[in-house]
Amino acid sequence: MTDTTKKGTTRRGFLAGAAAGGALAATAARAGGPDPLITEVQPWAQSLGDGVDATPYGMPIHFESHVVRRNVEWLTADTISSVNFTPIHELDGTITPQGCAFERHHAGAIELAKPDWRLMIHGLVERPLVFTYDDLIRFPRENHTYFLECAANGGMEWAGAQLNGCQFTHGMIHNMEYTGIPLRTLLAEAGVKPEGKWVLMEGADASSMSRSIPIGKALDDVLVAFKANGEALRKEHGYPVRLVVPGWEGNMWVKWLRRVEVGDQPWEHREETSKYTDTMADGRSRRWTWEMDAKSIITSPSPQAPITHGPGPTVISGLAWSGRGSIREVHVSLDGGKNWQQARLSGASHDKALHRFYFEFDWNGSELLLQSRAVDSTGYVQPTKEQLRSFRGVNSVYHNNGIHTWWVKTNGEAENVEIS
Ligand SMILES: Nc1nc2c(c(=O)[nH]1)N[C@H]1C(S)=C(S)[C@@H](COP(=O)(O)O)O[C@H]1N2
Ligand SMILES: [Mo]
């Protein structure tokens, strides 16, 4: 094949033209001769592919088998009362597929069939009620997209940089479109008595996960959800029914929901006293911290997603979210917070849901101290870790929403660091 005779119509001509444009320089550099991937008939074009009955329910193609939840062995004594992390460094857009959305169980993920599921509403109500799954789905439904963030997301980073990858530092989060019945609809069916000011939400697993929620939130946007991203909840996320508590810490999103009790005061159960409370510098703990403050993280480049293409056009990508509303702006710094530039938000902007941001720039190959900073719709600005510690000390585990830093080296590798 001669590829120089008719410039502009041949492959070499095309690549030379592209190289002049800059963006395809890396591809053009390989243009020593004909590319067999283009010029030769490949195996996948010499035989037929799979039939439509080969995969009744599809899994990701095996080339993507590294895009999975991962756990950190030393973090918990066993894998039953434990957590794994969403591979946020590999995902894009805003929706988290259920198959790789992080899991947090206190007594393992249980198997509870729809016919065996019951939801009880009792306590300070006019009519104590029990719903079956078939009862539940006869109420009017709503669809909403929300993030769930475990309050402990980033907990290991309070004292300093520790885990090398955003999957581990920020991966206790997922974002799904839920189909469910507003809790207020079910409470109205039971008739909350005037003295009913709190609800206790309890799960059916052996942990008896239970949390107190003020009636105002329960009657606002809380959902009793049975689908996520269009399909049934996965077992790991509470099949057949879980609670969705928009913007509030993940622990309150009770899975395998079985009981709603209406009361006149909070129950002060384990998960809202000895756990999921924030210990301050003086050793005393904050009683409640329900809302998740605005936060952001650059997912690429990051330690698990280095820059592999060398200097030139580079895409920075990341996630931002707020438990108080939507994300108004995200700023990106290349120099550890000295200078900030506006990132570009792309995709859906739902209240209390993940937002995707991008920042495109021409990397000159020098070291970077990458940071991102979210501003939410209330005007709240994500704090630095220093600011956070000045208020909260270093005894905390939960609710670390400090600005995070990746040190990008000249070879494109990134490392979790903290700068002061
Ligand atoms: N019944 C029950 N609900 C539960 C839990 C649990 O162990 N049991 N864990 C809670 C915690 S701490 C979190 S962060 C979220 C995690 O939800 P996910 O596993 O869908 O990510 O569920 C919450 N709901
Ligand atoms: Mo959690």
Question: Brief description of this entry?
Answer:
The protein is α+β, with helices and mostly antiparallel strands and 420 residues long. It has helices at 11-21, 25-28, 36-39, 133-136, 166-170, 183-190, 215-218, 385-392; strands at 82-83, 104-105, 119-123, 129-131, 142-149, 173-182, 198-203, 210-214, 223-228, 231-232, 242-244, 257-263, 295-300, 312-321, 327-333, 341-342, 344-346, 355-363, 368-376, 405-408, 414-417. Residues 104, 150-152, 250-251 line the site of molybdenum atom (MO).
Q: How would you describe this structure to a colleague?
A:
The protein folds into three domains: 11-41, no CATH class; 73-272, Alpha-Beta Complex (Sulfite Oxidase, Chain A, domain 2); 295-417, Immunoglobulin-like. The longest helix has 11 residues, at 11-21. The chain has a five-stranded mixed beta sheet with strand order 4-3-12-7-8. Strands 5, 6, 9, 10 and 11 form a five-stranded antiparallel beta sheet that branches. It has helices spanning 11-21, 25-28, 36-39, 133-136, 166-170, 183-190, 215-218, 385-392, and strands spanning 82-83, 104-105, 119-123, 129-131, 142-149, 173-182, 198-203, 210-214, 223-228, 231-232, 242-244, 257-263, 295-300, 312-321, 327-333, 341-342, 344-346, 355-363, 368-376, 405-408, 414-417. The chain starts with 10 loop residues before the first helix and ends with a strand. The protein has 420 residues and is α+β, with helices and mostly antiparallel strands. 11% of the residues lie in helices and 27% in strands. The model is unreliable at 1-25 (pLDDT under 50). It contains eight helices and 21 strands. The protein is globular and about 80 Å long. Molybdenum atom (MO) binds at residues 104, 150-152, 250-251. Molybdenum atom binds at residues 104, 150-152, 250-251.
